[in-house]
Amino acid sequence: MQRTIAITLFLMLLQGAAVAAESPEAERFARRWVYSNPGFDLRKDDQTERLLELIARAKQAGYNGITVRTNRLINFDYLPPAVYYRNAERVRMAAEAAGIELIPLVMRLNGYANGTLANNPNLAEGMPVRDCVFKVQAGQATVAESQNLLPFGDFETFSTPDRADGWDFVDGPGTVSFEDREVRHSGAASLRMENFASTAHGNGRVFKKLKLKPWHQYHVKVWIKTQNVKSPGMIWVRAQGDVTQQKRLNLHRASWDVQPTQDWKLHHAVFNTLHNGDIWLYVGGWQPGSGKMWLDDFSLQEVAGINLLRREGCPVRVTSEDGSVEYEEGTDFQQWEYPQMGRVRWPGHYAVAHPQPPIVLTEKSRIRDSQQLKVSFYHAVNHFGGGGMQACLTHDEVFDGLERHLKLVKKVWQPRTYFMIQDEIRLAGWCELCNRPGVTTGQVLAECTHRCTDIIRRVDPKAEIVNWSDMFDPNHNAVDNYWLNRGTMKGSWEGVDKDVTISNWNRGRMVPSLKFFSDRGHRQILATYY
């Protein structure tokens, strides 16, 4: 079997790194690509000039390919103005004259599929909430139990010096953690953390073991103030399940948008407990370096309907408390939704938290005041920070949008190669379209990848196709229980046709990874940025 290996140079903004292909019939490392990230906004002349400069620099340095982002062509209600297309043509002609191939990024179905979701935010992948108890009052039903489950989160009581009451663990009382009665958000005290490097691990966190309800949605809130924190991006919230297992499950793991120095600011996190009743909750800094951080007015509440999804595969079910009566939407209660879901600031942007939409009864409803209900639904969640959201891997409307986008990309860029973006899929397989009897999430991704490949071949039969390696690599992310994916991702590689080139970024286990894809007959690109 003949093998071709390409090493891809990744270029972050305008700071470079390295690409390439090896074949008995071709020059060694014949394909030398630059992966431009985050890309260039061709609606703006100055960014177009930067991309033209990059093309010239790439040619001078010996490269012959540059990836281009195509997200401006994905929101069909807000397609770019004429200047975008003029600038795209300038870029295309300059690249052709320089002998630089432009490789557009398409089929974005990873954990950052916000552009794909801009046309319909309800196409995000959903996590299930089962039998959440609501109580009816004055013609509306809301969560029955909404009390603060962290009543000690106000940091008002320190029975032991510098160790706040109620918490199971606080890093370094008296060395890292301190009772502060001078600086606080409200009340008489807050918890101050500093001197992080004084401990072996360099952390400053609070920790609590919790008994929560499986398959329910919870909202964490905390006020944070900082002063000269060296690495504020290391201030995180983590909710973990499977706490008795060696590898705990990160139900939520996200860096908060904390600044090095900021006044008191409210930060949010929303997570789903899935099958877990025992939860470990951490908040604080993981090696944040120098500086000071204050925490105050911490709360945790059961919630419902935050980023509520309404689409095929994500049904809403409302029953009586004993489950004997199922109520009908449109007859017993109005359409349950949050109209701005996934449209905060712009389409495809999801608020971490927003007001919980109540279930509003109709005039002829069979539901009565003071009655309790059981409500089941699906919701989207951003569990890794940065605003990224995962798209459903099965819904037909997702693929209709991807095909429409591809046709626009083909018209504008006239490419020879397309790069599919199907990496870092961290939340998949839960909605009823994906969670089918006998079908694993790995098989769902295999089906999805086949569909995407078929779309490209139908629209542009002669084009080459590249895809990322990680979600199809048993030495990387195609494993059991990867992040919040349901079950196993094994077998996903069956969806990658042999003539699809693999861009391999498995730095940790490069040798077995390269052999795995080579044995399957794939050409490979080595992503040396990693």
Short characterization:
With 530 residues, the chain is α/β, with parallel strands linked by helices. It is 16% helix and 28% strand.
Could you give the distance between the termini? 27 Å
Tally the beta strands.
24
In N-to-C order, the SSE pattern is EEHEHEHEEEEEEEEEEEEEEEEHEHEEHE
| Average pLDDT figure | 92
Q: Would you give an account of this structure?
A:
The protein has 530 residues and is an alpha/beta fold. It is built from six helices and 24 strands. The strands form four sheets. An eight-stranded parallel β-barrel has the order 1-2-3-4-21-22-23-24, surrounded by four helices. The protein has a six-stranded antiparallel sheet with strand order 18-17-20-5-6-19, with no helix packed on it. The chain has a five-stranded antiparallel sheet with strand order 7-10-15-12-13, with no helix packed on it. Helix 1 packs parallel to helix 2 (82-98). The longest helix is centred in the last third of the chain and has 19 residues, at 441-459. It has helices at 45-61, 82-98, 114-117, 396-413, 441-459, 510-519; strands spanning 5-12, 32-37, 65-68, 101-106, 127-137, 140-143, 169-170, 177-180, 190-193, 204-211, 217-227, 235-241, 249-255, 262-272, 278-285, 292-303, 317-320, 326-327, 359-360, 372-379, 417-420, 464-468, 501-504, 524-527.
